[in-house]
Amino acid sequence: MDIAIVGAGIAGLVLALRLHEEGVPCRLYEAVPEIKPLGVGINILPHASEVLGGLGLEKALTAEAVLTAESVFFNRFGQLIYREPSGRAAGYRHPQYSIHRGRLHAVLLAAVRDRLGPGAVAVDHRCTGVAQDEDGAYLTFRTTTGDAPLPRVRAGGVVACDGVHSVIRRQFHPGEGEPRYSGVNMWRGTAIGRPFLSGASMVRIGWLDRGKLVVYPIRDDVDGAGGQLINWVAEIETPHHLTRDWNRRGDLNDFIGAYEDWHFDWLDVPALLRSSGAMLEYPMVDQEPLDRWTFGRVTLLGDAAHPMVPRGSNGAGQAILDAKALSTVLAGTGDVAAAFRAYEDQRRPATTAVVLTNRRTPPDVIIREVRDRTGDRPFERVEDVISHEELAAISRRYKDVAGMSARSLMVGDQAVI
């Protein structure tokens, strides 16, 4: 029952570690010739960090991350709308990690090579397709560096963890069509700055029509003088967008105008943006949920299965939950095809709900609600606009959909908040 994993990103690496824990042999095949740290910040919520903690990675991740303590919402005038504790500060058993994607990937890759062996990840293997018969599945590859054919790989099952541009997804869904653009473009980057608010706050400010910003620290004391590495994401409604490419460079001049007057007593936003190094641009796109992931001995996982708009810190988190579910059912049966079907039956409805909720009512819809009720003007007291109970209910509904509700995660005998 050996498993071939196509793609050595976060999804593929976590799946490999989980399969190893369950005693299921596997090997990863990655298209890039050399794995390097890429990207900017990422959040891993407690329902996903529980999986990583179960793999013995909490100490390594804690050394690389900021443990997020609160989630805070402001309007574009810098007025506080709502705040709530996060991670262990909210009573969860496991932390919420704010971490550079490259550092998270490095921790996972080191663990895979240490536990599964240095040859567990075959690089420079660009998948070109998959075939199968009653006894196994067969992958074909070419090198990325020279486009030369490579030996065919046979395995008991194949899991496509090859992301939003998945070759295997396209093979089984050739008429799927283009990604669905949300009407919002985003720019992302990092800068070194002084700690703000609690020093472990994840902050969302403003709304998409006039400019929205998500900002949070991802590494402490990066300069030896107490400065933090601060991650930011700028989101603005625009009819124009380019094709999705996680590594496309962005231009500050394309969006800085929306934030020029955002000088708050706890953060100077335009100064933060201008002090950033290289920044990235990406359209907020997803795909319509599929009606099928599994085809005999082949299945999809993570972004290959359910590309979603990157809101609510749930893209990587849902992939990690996929990996847990799939590894668990594989360990319980010798029938790969049956295990793949059971995994899909469990995870496809759950991730479909997250994809659709991220479109309509992600957690930052709290800011939109206040904007609509005030006519996008400052308020005297937020309590005169919306009650704390209503704001908490909006946040709670998203947690329910994402799988991290008070009912599903407990601390001792007490439900988390």
From TrEMBL:
Entry-linked InterPro entries: FAD-bd, FAD-dep_Monooxygenase_BioMet, FAD/NAD-bd_sf
Superkingdom per UniProt: Bacteria
UniProt keyword Transmembrane helix, yes or no: no
Keyword Oxidoreductase: yes
Keywords attached to this entry: Monooxygenase, Oxidoreductase
Gene3D superfamilies, per database record: 3.30.9.30, FAD/NAD(P)-binding domain
Positions of the FAD-binding domain: 2-172, 287-355
Pfam families, per database record: FAD_binding_3
Entries under NCBIfam families matching the protein: PRK07538.1
Listed name of the protein: Flavin-dependent oxidoreductase
Source organism of this protein record: Actinoallomurus acaciae
Lineage: Bacteria, Bacillati, Actinomycetota, Actinomycetes, Streptosporangiales
